[in-house]
Amino acid sequence: MRNIELNGRVPDLAETQRLAAVNYGHFTSMQVRDSAVRGLALHFARLDDGNQEFFGWRPDVDDEHRLRQLIVHAMGTERDASVRVAYVPGLDPAGPPDVVVSVSDPAPDEPAAPQRVRVDPAFRRPWPEQKHSATMGLVRARRLAEAAGFDDALSVGPDGMVREGTTWNVAFYNGEQVVWPQAPMLKGVTMVLLQIAMSMGEVPWTIRPVPASELPDFTGAVAVNSRTCRQEIGSIDDLKYPASDRLAAILAETWESVPFDAL
């Protein structure tokens, strides 16, 4: 962690204790490169929705300008970083929430080795459409997967439909088009940006319900989140996907066409 600020300043001990003790709020995570972010408007829209959902508060244009200033201030002289912006309860219940900006090292440009993923039918996030602080369920799902010899967990709902990973969306490839599951889940900023860019670049894709029984029909799978657009999934349970699949390359090429927005 390079820096963390509460409302534009380093929190004191009492404030740090309050932040650690109260697990309520929502956030967005972004990769900053050369003081710019892909999909900045989508990150701000996510925060606006979270503020309405969890605090009953809708920021105005001045609040968005202040948020930009808080991010830039927390980054200091850094130009490349991983940045997390969170809204948490303030001391005044009737007032707006507090803003916590955390700055850490940028994510590696290259993804990790192909991941081994386990289907976890018990794992599903509450308020799945929101990126919120109630992360114990996803952390537990990942720990159980690791204890069983896997790298991560994939949620499949009680209806047998594929949803999302612990901290990522999943994309599949059938040899002709990219397939995104349609289910109760977080619409990740990276996923949405890729979908827009694929449409603009005329890359075939669709979003539809994906039953777990269909997983063997795909030629590849990739995890997508704020840290990477192309983390290959080598296997799901006992099902293995070939390392030569085109999906990761398609997403990488598409991602390069997504423009940056200056902070």
UniProtKB/TrEMBL annotation:
InterPro entries for the chain: Aminotrans_IV, Aminotransferase-like, BCAT-like_C
One Pfam family per UniProt: Aminotran_4
Assigned keywords, A-Z: Aminotransferase, Transferase
Secreted is among the record's keywords: no
MF annotations from Gene Ontology: transaminase activity
Name of the protein: Aminotransferase class IV
